[in-house]
Amino acid sequence: MYAYLDDGPHAGERMRIEPGEDGRPPRTVDLTGPDGDAARYELLGPHHNDDWWIYRRARGTGGGRSG
Q: Where is this region: Disordered (predicted)?
């Protein structure tokens, strides 16, 4: 299963993600941005098939600790 990161410091990146116990993609993905700040990405929906999912940076996760 793969994530496509739609925006934020990782915009355009693709990464492998592990499905949850239910076989679905995780609702959020937490990463560290290039500046060292936490960046949380939220699931938007499927990309072009069931193995690829689009994530967008969560609001309020710029600068400092994500919540």
A: 1-35
